[in-house]
Amino acid sequence: MTKTQSATRERLATIPELKTVSAPRPAPQGHWVGDGFPVRTIFAYDDLGVSPFLLMDHAGPAVFPPSEKRRGVGEHPHRGFETVTVMYSGEVEHRDSGGASGKIGPGDVQWMTAGSGVVHEEMHSAEYSRRGGPFEAIQLWVNLPASHKMTAPNYQTLLARDIPEVELAGGAGTARIIAGAFGDARGPARTFTPVNLWDVRLRAGKGALLELPSGHMAALFVLKGGVSANGSTKVDAGEFVTFAREGGAISIDADADSTLLVLGGEPIDEPVVGSGPFVMNTEAEIRRAIEDYRSGRMGHLAA
């Protein structure tokens, strides 16, 4: 038995019941969103139930050459959920029909509540476009419960300096708490239902126990490196695993220096009906969203 395996067994012997881990989902084929986001859709609500999350796109890693033309995705609508963009490299600028705008770079997070409906664009920043360079981001769609589907749109810019970073036990690495709680640290994101979103960095040969409430969903995505989940399931870069709702923790051991995104939250056990950029509870609500967008009731971006 290696030193890492021995440490893992000691940790597992003193912890709450672990959430059962699924088989890893391999990295899917990529596609483009606009001309600025080469993405792989890691999961979507129509092929994997991970409520309260609806979708996750991994953009990059890629390298863009310098350009005077700004790349990205132009004006488009959303209703019924929130979009969350976590930046690892590069820069993105946002503006929407409600007048909100912002720029995020490495370590920053954009948390946009589409709610009753908003039209926005997401573009590479002018400065990043001119200099080019590496680009990597995660975008999540987070569902809203029926009681908040038509809430007023809102925009949160969560800068890296405002996101608390926690040292993991035993020098295993760090966790940045974007949303939810980790020990005494609380993330700055304001959410409608309980959500945990942690940017975790593990050192090679180290392990960590991450406590997540029983009854909540839990999942992790490996951006870089490779880990073993619960002492048994290997998860390589680009792969995604989910955990059962039952149990109060997950255990992760790093085979190499690793970057992970850990997701958790209280499931929203309501019907999910989606069409493109709209996610509601009924077909009638989807038809109303399409009508409202086409008629201009969601607004438009200023020229």
| Uncertain residue ranges | none
**What is the molecular shape?**
globular
pLDDT averaged over residues: 94
End-to-end separation: 65 Å
Report strand order across the widest sheet: 1-2-3-10-5-8-11
Which band does the percent of strand residues land in? over 45%
Give the radius of gyration.
Answer: 19 Å
Task: State the order of secondary-structure elements, H for helix, E for strand.
Answer: HEEEEEEEEEHEEEEEEEEEEEEEEEEH
Secondary-structure content class: mainly beta
Counting DSSP E segments of at least 2 residues, the number of strands comes to 25
Helix content bin: under 10%
Main β-sheet description:
7 strands, antiparallel
Number of helices: 3
Features:
mainly beta; 303 residues; single chain; six-stranded antiparallel β-sheet; seven-stranded antiparallel β-sheet
Describe the structure in your own words.
With 303 residues, the chain is mainly β. The protein has helices spanning 3-12, 126-131, 283-294; strands spanning 31-33, 37-44, 53-64, 72-78, 81-89, 92-96, 101-104, 109-113, 118-124, 133-143, 154-158, 165-167, 173-179, 181-182, 185-186, 195-202, 207-211, 217-224, 226-229, 233-236, 240-243, 249-254, 258-265, 273-275, 278-280. The chain is 9% helix and 47% strand. It has a seven-stranded antiparallel sheet with strand order 1-2-3-10-5-8-11. It has a six-stranded antiparallel sheet with strand order 12-13-16-23-18-21, with no helix packed on it. Strand 14 and strand 15 (185-186) form a beta hairpin. The longest helix is centred in the last third of the chain and has 12 residues, at 283-294. It is globular, with a radius of gyration of 19 Å. The protein starts with a helix and ends in a 9-residue tail after the last helix. The mean pLDDT is 94.
